[in-house]
Sequence to fold (164 residues):
Amino acid sequence: MKLFGVTGWKNSGKTGLMERLVAELTGRGLSISTIKHAHHSTDIDQPGRDSFRHRTAGAHEVILASPLRWALMHELRGSEEPSLEDLIAKLSPVDLVLVEGYKSGSHPKIETHRGEIPRPLLASENPTIRAIASNAGLDGMSVPVFDLDDTAAIADFVLREVGL
Fold:
């Protein structure tokens, strides 16, 4: 499967760009899956729900299934966080996997940037960043710079980069 990432600092527009890219690319007939990395503890389950109760009782894995979707929750219980490669291997085959986060991963990425967030650009130190999507004018960059809201142009770039 082809793989491309969206990375950047907190509140730089990563999730919004991911959402727009998924809609744009699926609208073009491609099958897309996503992986989102969270640096903080997060829970997709709710206290009091049966599946939550199963997990807190000690279950290693819980599948929650309904007529519309299913989800597998795997408790690490002290084990190391799986690598991006391990997680990709768990996905069903698709045309493209979009990855949010994983700044230090070896896969190609686009960096999101907002001028109002005073953080240094990651692209200057990270050779896996192939372009920047920004709401501010950036001159003299060594990678292409796109308007953060120009989803079609960013999608075209991503598809060229991964050979689709």
